[in-house]
Amino acid sequence: MRHHMCLLAATVALPFLAQPSWANMVYVSNEKGNSVTVVDSQTMEVVKTIDVGQRPRGITISPDGKIVYVCASDDDTVQMIDTSTGEIIGSLPSGPDPELFTLSPDGKTLYIANEDDNLVTVIDVESKGVIAEIPVGVEPEGMGVSPDGKTIVNTSETTNMAHFIDTSTHEITDNVLVDSRPRYAQFKPDGSEVWVSAEIGGTVSVIDNKTRTVTHKITFEIQGLRSEQIQPVGIRISADGKKAYIALGPANRVAVVNTETYTVEKYVLVGQRVWQLAFMPDGKSIISTNGLSNDITFIDTETDEPIKSVTVGQLPWGVAVSPN
Amino acid sequence: MNGLVMKSTVPNTLTFLFGFFLLFVNVSELSAQQSTTNQTAKPIVDIRIGYLRAYEPQLALSVLDIPPRDEGVAGANVAINDNNTTGKFLGQQFTLDITETKFNADLTSAFKEMVARGDRFILTDVSAKQLLAIADLAKDAGVLLFNVGSTDDILREEECRSNIFHTAPTRSMLADGLAQYLVWKQWRKWVLLYGSHDNDKLYADAIRRAATRFGATIVEERLYEDNGTARRTDSGVVLVQQQMPVFTQNLPEHDVVIVADESEVFGSYVPYRTWTPRPVAGTAGLVASSWHPASEQWGGVQIQNRFAKTTGRRMLSKDMQAWTAVRILGEAVTRAKSAETKQVEDYIKSDEFSIAAFKGQKLSFRNWNWQLRQPILIGDGHSVVSTSPQTGFLHQFSELDTLGVDRPETKCKLK
Questions:
Q1: Chain B residues within 8 A (CB-CB) of chain A?
Q2: pTM as predicted
Q3: B171-184 vs B198-214: helix axis angle to the nearest 10?
Q4: Is A177's CB within 8 Å of B305's CB?
Q5: Is A49 an 8 Å CB contact of chain B?
Q6: Is A200 on the interface with B (CB under 8 A)?
Q7: How far apart are CA A14 and CA A116, in angstroms?
Q8: Interface residue of B33, B302, B401 to substitute, partner A, most A CBs within 10 Å
Q9: Measured between CB atoms, which of A159, A173, A202 is closest to B39?
Q10: Spatial separation of the C-alpha atoms in residues A323 and A107, rounded to whole Å
């Protein structure tokens, strides 16, 4: 959602960090390294490592590309990094143990999953104030926002539900049961569907956003791997809505799914324990974080072949790409 | 017998749950057409889970190993909270009904009272003998039992029952998990030191079986006879420690010393006191278990934090076994859309069933004896050293079935 908005902004490239205008900065949170690695998308080389708080996991970037937000889970805070200087310029109150969050399409509101307290915390980015705390299921994790910003979806890992929350009232309107340990929620760019991954269940549930019911369930099968090893986590859907990329955790692969037929067309071998994904703003490549091999992989979205892996910090978790 | 049966007075975190009893609603109100949306007001369905426990204060060689007063029960309570957090979206209210008896007590009347109170799902932390004495009563009463305490293989083998699910691992699963790690380490020559009590001998049997199964050799066995003076509070303790070097003298060449002392008579005194410097494993030193208080992998941090916050202590294996049993019931009631025993049982016994329990993969039941398949953690008192099954131990159906008695060799005939 954020990414296709960013496509518009990408044409107005600004020379941050004195980089050539066609390069984007890739920000990777390293869960065990307590750092964020900055990779130049053009040269595919590490340009900077920024020390952050403890156990950085969820990471996202403002629509204007100026601020990177990182969940420092063990420090119970969300840190803000100025992308022009690479310095931490402040923090947001996050509630305890923030793991994943999502930024509203206008960049003004941050929705944070607080794993330890079964809450979703809503933060006004400008005033740094807590707007609301919404009780959800056990171990809230995945956070998705609809393209129109009207709905957020939170997944709770032990309750095994996707909670649909109305952003105007901060009330839960629907609870949709999915498979075991739902990890991530991603809206289709047209807002018609929400895709929810279930790590232990080994499936991705496709939820119709109108009826709020599961209409399709995507399963995975890889020769030579047991079903238990296939654990879907991060999901990204292309701006044209035609292809979905799903990180399969310890299966070490990214699945490429046709969104019309809901079938897997390809498995791309990347690195060990593939966790999250992010598109480049031009949509021509997608980046995976490979936790156990301490690297990220650039995948060409035309051929769906890996282009290159780049070593980052210890246990890379999340990834965000600057829109400019 | 009634004098031995009491409503638990386990304090703090447990007591507030009893308040929920006031919310009693007939179980049958959980209708099949129950929607997953929560906006319409739904009748609240009360699901009572019994917890039948044989408890007596126990000593251990190290004060750190004395079982907490609420061991197991605390795990069940955390899972009750988890189920109720989910339940508030579905109109489900879970309550825990705890009954404590003594070791070796006759459980018949306690069990009947639980059934009379409406418990149809009962967790048990009792001996194999006690459990078997109520198994058929439970069947007649339409009660499903969840063994969260006993590791006795016989409950899954000769004496298996179709109405008992086991979330506790068996001794053979524990021994196999340990053996796989030792063999992977190439520590293949073992010395076995075992205690004189029945459970010590059963553990030693499981070790012998594991050695044969995974290609290790037990080069010598020694029995340590309990003469009743080993305990921490006895002055004999000093003597037992001093005996250990001599007890392990003149052994043939070996890589590792395996201790089989579930009764806590001498085992904890073996590490660092052997005649020759060798690592110690088994019931002391490197120990195989269903959970470890320091396990943080696979989202384990979350359950550990939740547990520590609620109980004020770290989570132990029995806590995890009870947590898993209560979560299985929560999951089954939700997925089966019914709190009726039959529907819940059918769901748990179906191919669709699986449960997530912070062990990196889904867990399911072996349909030939209703034992929960699960990875086994290998750890010392301080940290998790490894998790079995080890890489390379293959199986045609599930690698988890390389742990414990497998389908082709089972003696279980489910009735």
A1: 36-39, 82, 85-86, 89-90, 299, 302, 305-306, 309, 327, 331, 334-335, 354-356, 360-362, 398-399
A2: 0.87
A3: 40
A4: no
A5: no
A6: yes
A7: 39
A8: B302
A9: A173
A10: 13
Three-state secondary structure of chain B: CHHHCEECCCCCCCHHHHHHHHHCCCHHHCCCCCCCCCCCCCCCEEEEEEEEEECCCCCCCCHHHCCCCCCCHHHHHHHHHHHHHHHHHHCEEEEEEEEEECCCCCCHHHHHHHHHCCCCEEEEECCHHHHHHHHHHHHHHCCEEEECCCCCHHHCCCCCCCCEEECCCCHHHHHHHHHHHHHHCCCCEEEEEEECCHHHHHHHHHHHHHHHHHCCEEEEEEEECCCCCCCCCCCHHHHHHHHHHHHCCCCCCCCEEEEECCCCCCHHHCCCCCCCCCCEEECCCEEEECCCCCCCCCCHHHHHHHHHHHHCCCCCHHHHHHHHHHHHHHHHHHHHCCCCHHHHHHHHCCCCCCECCCCCCCECECCCCCEECCCEEEECCCCEEEEECCCCCCCCCCHHHHCCCCHHHCCCCCC
Are the C-beta atoms of A299 and A268 separated by less than 8 Å?
Answer: yes
Residue A86 · residue A48 · CB < 8 Å: yes
Domain ranges of chain B: 2-169+293-374, 172-289
Whether residue A200 and residue B362 make contact (CB cut-off 8 A), yes or no, is yes
CATH no. of B2-169+293-374: 3.40.50.2300
* Integer Cα distance of A210 and A189 in angstroms: 15
With contact defined as beta carbons under 8 Å apart, do A296 and A34 qualify? Answer: no
Rounded to 5 degrees, what angle do the CA atoms B392, B396, B399 make? 50
- Of B246, B314, B254, residue with least CA distance to B279: B254
**pLDDT at residue B120 greater than cutoff 50:** yes
pLDDT digits (tens, 9 = 90+) for B71-80: 999 999 999 9
ipTM value, please give it. Answer: 0.83
Closest chain A residue by Cα to residue B300: A139
In chain B the first and final C-alpha atoms are separated, in Å, by 30
Task: With beta carbons less than 8 A apart as the criterion, state whether B100 and B5 touch.
Answer: yes
Domain formed by A2-321, architecture: 7 Propeller (2.130)
Q: Where are the domains of chain A?
A: 2-321
Mean pLDDT across B316-326 = 98
Contact B306 A116 (CB under 8 A): yes
What CATH fold (topology level) applies to the domain B172-289?
Rossmann fold (3.40.50)
Instruction: Tell which residue, A244, A230, A222, A145, has the closest CA to residue A180.
Output: A230
pLDDT band at B3 (very low <50, low <70, confident <90, very high): very low
Gap between the Cα atoms of A244 and A264, Å rounded: 9
How high is the pLDDT of residue B238? 67
Contact A157 B356 (CB under 8 A): yes
